[in-house]
Amino acid sequence: MANKEIPYKIYLEESEMPREWYNVRADMKIKPAPLLNPATGKPINAEELGHVFCEELVKQELDDTTRLIPIPQPILDFYKMYRPAPLVRAYCLEKKLGTPAHIYYKFEGNNTSGSHKLNSAIAQAYYAKEQGLVGVTTETGAGQWGTALSMACSYFGLDCNVYMVKCSYEQKPFRREVMRTYGAKVTPSPSESTAVGRQILAEFPGTTGSLGCAISEAVEAATTRPGYRYVLGSVLSQVLLHQSIIGMEAKAALEKYGVKADIIIGCAGGGSNLGGLISPFMGEKLRGEADYHFIAVEPASCPSLTRGKYVYDYCDTGRVCPLSKMYTLGSSFIPAPNHAGGLRYHGMSSVLSELYDQGLMEARSVKQTEVFEAAEYFARVEGILPAPESSHAIKVAIDEAVKCRETGEAKNIVFGLTGTGYFDMLAYEKFHDGKMTDYIPTDDELAASLSKTPKF
Ligand SMILES: *Cc1c(COP(=O)(O)O)cnc(C)c1O
């Protein structure tokens, strides 16, 4: 099939859609380090995790050995409404760049929430429903995760409580209203509705909140009410597992046309889309069946892989969640305000951290203005208005394609286009008005927050 003409969009037939998630941990000889209980410093067990998370999700979180996990039929049915996501051959971009490289992108913005987060939201809502729970709680910063979870909960008839960082709640009324359209209860955080919220408000009156604080409120709301559990949209291994649907589809689509990827690129916030995209390919690499060059792209303002340390750290500023060994900037690190909302997390998935530490993946950091230059270039050439997060991957895909122009190599470049940017037009406005800045933390700033990581 190698010479078959490749269409602009490669779709899979319904019958060709993956029916299993792939768990890359099963093929890792050195497994990611276990999560630790913050109270005891010992590996956390299923029972302890079960107070916070749904039972089946706890099983998935702790499963380092099952390679393929069947996707339950109700989740497959939901996936069919917006999947398969197309794998697009970026012919127009290739032509514009004058590169011999072949560029492909996996587009995850084809659903109302506008990003890949729905892939895991629907799975998490399904398992909560199966367990007979009343509802779930979560936090959201920029709003993509809250939106995806609202859609998923409304589908399964679950109560959905979203703690939204107050400044986003006020500045992003459209995301908030999408969530309410799907029946979610959206509370600006910090709020008076939790003890931790009241404590923070007493200490810092008028604070506009932070993600760490919203996490603490959401966890409290889940653990103090019967019938509720907490759910999280990235970082956790269960989320990477669900997101492997991206990579499974991409691999099937490439195989359909006899294409072997050379470079695979994704943006990295907590690591779920990147982990999901690369997992099945990484599996081949780990088993010695094929080689790929993986590139994680992060913002220079929040460079956990490229400048962080690989140590145990808190996942949240409130220090209520389990400890994870990961590349981190320190849980007290507060990135300068920038517009890659979904990439402003201080840590990284423990799976990706371990793969990176073993030298199986490269990481690069890119500056905000160059990301928006790439975003605008891409929008004008390929039509899709990309999310700022996704545009980190676009930037590096373009860089790699330009290198191919110089060397004359016809490499196959695949990147993840995680979502659309319609709710990020204030960021685009700043860019167009020349008001966007490129803040890069100093070594001293990083050393200060890294010095506060717990010692074990
Ligand atoms: C949340 C988000 C990301 C980053 O999250 P990961 O868990 O690192 O994938 C990237 N792109 C978009 C559009 C997002 O909404």
Offer a quick outline of the entry.
The protein is of the alpha/beta class. It has helices at 46-49, 55-62, 73-82, 91-97, 118-130, 144-156, 166-171, 173-181, 195-203, 211-223, 237-256, 272-286, 304-307, 350-357, 368-382, 388-407, 425-432, 443-450, and strands spanning 9-10, 20-22, 68-70, 87-89, 102-107, 135-140, 159-165, 185-189, 228-230, 263-267, 293-299, 309-314, 323-328, 362-366, 412-417. The chain is 42% helix and 16% strand.
Lay out the secondary structure.
Elements: E1 9-10, E2 20-22, H1 46-49, H2 55-62, E3 68-70, H3 73-82, E4 87-89, H4 91-97, E5 102-107, H5 118-130, E6 135-140, H6 144-156, E7 159-165, H7 166-171, H8 173-181, E8 185-189, H9 195-203, H10 211-223, E9 228-230, H11 237-256, E10 263-267, H12 272-286, E11 293-299, H13 304-307, E12 309-314, E13 323-328, H14 350-357, E14 362-366, H15 368-382, H16 388-407, E15 412-417, H17 425-432, H18 443-450
Residues 115, 117, 144, 234, 267-274, 342-343, 387, 389-390, 418-419 line the site of pyridoxal-5'-phosphate (PLP).
Descriptive tags:
456 residues, alpha/beta, Rossmann fold, 2 domains, seven-stranded mixed beta sheet, 18 helices, 16% strand, binds pyridoxal-5'-phosphate
Description of the structure:
With 456 residues, the chain is of the alpha/beta class. The protein has 2 domains: 255 residues, Rossmann fold; 164 residues, Rossmann fold (3-Layer(aba) Sandwich), CATH 3.40.50. The protein has 18 helices and 15 strands. The strands form 4 sheets. Strands 1-4-5-15-10-11-14 form a 7-stranded mixed β-sheet, with helices on both faces. Helix 3 packs antiparallel against helix 5, helix 5 runs parallel beside helix 6 and helix 9 packs antiparallel against helix 10. It is globular and about 60 Å long. The model has no long low-confidence stretch (mean pLDDT 95). Bound molecules: pyridoxal-5'-phosphate. The site of pyridoxal-5'-phosphate (PLP) has 19 residues, from helix 12 and helix 16.
